Amino acid sequence: METVVLKIGETGADEAKLQLAAQYIRDGKLVILPTETVYGLGANALDFAAVRGIFAAKGRPADNPLIVHIADFSQIEPLVKTIPPELELLAKRFWPGALTVILPKTDLVPNVTSGSLDTVAIRMPDHSAMLEVIRRAGVPVAAPSANRSGFPSPTSAQHCIDDMDGRVDMIVDGGACAVGVESTVLTLCTNPPKILRPGAVTLEMLKEVLPNVTYDEGAFAHLPDDAKAASPGMKYRHYAPKAQVILVHGSAQQLRDYIADKPGAGVLCFEGEEALFAAVPHITYGAGNDPASQARQLFDALRRIDTKNVHTVYVRMASAEGLGQAVYNRLLRAAAFLELTL
Ligand code: TXA
Ligand code: MG
Questions:
Q1: Model-level pTM?
Q2: DSSP-assigned beta bridge partners for residue 187
Q3: Ligand 1 atom closest to Cα of 120?
Q4: Are the CB atoms for 303 and 152 separated by under 8 Å?
């Protein structure tokens, strides 16, 4: 199929473009939309055939459920069995924003959307174009990250074009994503509530509303192959470039010495370390003391290092504080839990 690319935010003609994107969604087509976290591959969440198209375009396993995006709190009611008071508190504090909440679903949500689970994941994204398209379409929009399954999530329209040109009907180009890593996924279906995937809404922030919230055991651990994952996405290899990724604990100098005799090595390092790694292919991903900048640049860095034909990419360890927890989680998965301590 031919993929239409519409750039918004520069010409002032956004309204007609967003109207067209909404029309595409209503017609059951596939539309890549910008959000504040990463780009999403959107379709009408209630349209079985359209949602099946998302799985086909991504090459996504059918048991991996999708997040349903809404623009207004009132859109939740038909999707979930009950609205617990916690959800209202969370919505007031964090929506629109990088928080996805899982609740028991109604029959209105097709099984194809929920990966045959009896729960549904819901998020109100903090991006005016995405919200406007959902509003104008008048339906909730299912949208996984718009990458080919297994690859790093897209944080620019170019990443989406690289992965999805010819596989979707439209790409709405809203520029670079402000956060850069996907939303926090929280389930309210367990007691205590659990974080299945860390994101910009951190454990500490959630504790202000849900004092007993904890991380699910799969959030930072390698689940055995026969384990039942709380979130199907935990089972699959993720965010991975073609090169082998190894997450390195140690100083920049220790890493430079370690790779000195390793042919095919590349490095993901922090700003200011470029000179130290001048002898090997390297890409920076933010500043060592600034997790937000690491989050913004991580997926682009993982994509770019692959253009340098390295065999193994050694990644300087992120700070693992606040938003750094999300960066660390994505790196662990990109590295298939391969960590090296120098
Ligand atoms: O920031 C984001 O969340 C982006 C943007 C586009 O909104 N979306 C995103 O979707 O990251 P995706 O499909 O790449 O990741 C959704 C994750 C998957 O790991 C999936 O398994 C999990 O959420 N998930 C979705 N529905 C679930 C459910 N009912 N129960 C447990 N996990 C669920
Ligand atoms: Mg994804």
A1: 0.97
A2: 102, 194
A3: 29
A4: yes
